[in-house]
Amino acid sequence: MDETETGQGGIGWFFNHLPTIMWQRRNWVIWPFVVTTLAAAIAAFALPTLYRSTASLLVQSQDLPTSVVEAPTAGDIEQRIARIRERVLSRGDLIRLIEQNNLYPEDRQSDPLSEIVEKMRDATTVGAQTNDLGGSSGGTNDTIAIDISFDYSDPGQAQEVLQSYVNDFLAQDSEDISEQARLSVRFLEDQANRLRGQISTLENQLTTLKARNGAALAQNAPPMMDLGSYSSQIASLESQNRELLAQVNRVPRKDPQVANAEAVLAAAQALYNDNHPDVAAARERLRAVQQMSRANPSQDESGLLRGQIAANNQAIGSLQAARASAMAQAQSAVAGSARAPAILEQAMQLENQATGLREQYRKVADDLLKAQNSARLANEQRAERLSLVEPPNLPDTPYSPNRPLLIAGGAILGLVLGLLLAFAVEFLRRPLRSPSQIESLGFPVLGVVPLLGAKKKRSRFNFFRKKSPRFA
Fold first, then answer.
1. 81-99, pLDDT tens digit by residue?
2. Residue 463: which domain range?
């Protein structure tokens, strides 16, 4: 009698007779294993095969530093991408893509169109890549790229649909930035026109007041100086400067032929790789045009315009100094007049209001100039924008389902289920397999009679059988 069996009582026998138990309960293990494995294999081959086409868009910063030209503000990059995604995946655009590429032909015959649209949305993935290198400040965006993918049963159609997604993303992003810049310019122009009208009204009131009360002010004091003429001249010079600045901004920075050649090269690089013949031809064309442009430089018009602006600024400074001197003389002249104080106070109030509005107008004019430069950046595709880094690929291997993984998972599940069933049957039936189990029940063992029989053929499964003698 085994001492381990005697010491462990009702539990030790299970571990000692585990090979015998597994052999006798083998059907409880084999059948669940076979059934679940077959079910997993059938399910793996019954599921539709899907191919995934992927593309990457880079969030590219503006070409000029923000210290030179402020970037057009179109909102946070994450919010901007979310708005573009909602428009690209709208119901109308998805229906257009479904009909254009003849997607889901079998589902369209039986399912409603709304379910097919939702299925296409689920097959589309838009994810952001963040900057994991560290060093980003609290006010900067961490998103550096966008990954877009589309799953479909046909790899060619998956690539075509994803190419449409990429084109829509790039077009919507450029349109958003340009529209935001145009709105800013329009708002600032309206604000500048409103301030200009208010300044003109105050200057007319001030001129009328001086014309009506000039005799009363001249009784005991010298005539009041005409400050409105200074203000009109200053406003005229400032308006002339704004027109000159607009002309400077309209002066092309590069030859139109060079810009056209660069646009053709960029379009070719977006569609083909660098080794494509169209890209090589566009690059040679750009090099030739640049050489021609350097050989025939155009006259620098912006230098002349900036010189005129500097002269106007100097004249404005002189007029402002003269106006300040005239105001001081007027204040001194009417100090002793009996009627002058009230009139002078009213005139000074109007002048102070006009001065405050001029300061506001100067700030708005500066903001308007910045907004116009930002709009120019947006129109020339030089602002913060999305650019294509990895074009949509043609998948050559299925993305889903993972058939080996499904079959292996079914096999493992069947094996575990079979072992659990075999152990459950063994513990429920509790067969007597050794004398120690009889002694654990409180009955004495009178003797052990071995099972005698003909010698059987050696089987390959004898490894799993218990090596000790079998008992009746």
1. 888 888 888 888 899 998 8
2. 1-17+433-472
